[in-house]
Amino acid sequence: MIAAGIDIGTQSAKVAILKDGEVLSRSLALCGFDPKEAAGQAFKEALKNAKLSFEKVEHITATGAGAAKAPYSHSTISMMGADAQAGAYFFSSARTVIDVGAEEARAVSCDENGNMLNFVLNSRCAAGAGTFIEAMARALEVELEELGPLSLKAEKASPINASCVIFSESDVVSLIHRQEPKPEIARAIYDAMADRISSMAHRLGIKPHIVLVGGVAKDVGFVTSLKRKLGTELLIPEDPVFAGSVGAALTASKRIR
Amino acid sequence: MATKFEGNVKAIPEMPPKEIEEIRSSMESVSRKVIAENIERMKKTWPNRPKTMQYFDEISNFFGQRLEDIRAQKEAGKKIVAYSCMFAPIELILAAGAIPVRIDSGWYDAAKLGDKIVPVEVCPVIRSAIGTQMVNLSPYLELSDAVIIPLTCDGRTKLSEILRDDRTVWTMCPPRIKDSPESRKLWVEEVKAVKKKIEDLTGTEITGKRLRSAIELTQKATKAIRRLQEIRKGNPVIMGRDAMLVNQTSMWDDLKKWMQKTEELCDELENRIEQKNWACSPDTPRVMVTGTPMIWPDNWKIPNLIEESNPQGVIVVDELCSGDRLLYDPVGVDEWTMSDMIDAVADRYTLASTCPCFTSEHGNEDRINWLLDRIKEYRVDGVIYYVLRGCILYAMEYARIKRILDRMNVPIYYLDTEYTREDVGQMKTRVEAFLEMLETRVALKPVN
Question: DSSP readout, A85-145?
Answer without folding.
Answer: HHHHHH-TT--EEEEE-SS-EEEEEE-TT--EEEEEE--SSGGGSHHHHHHHHHHHT--HH
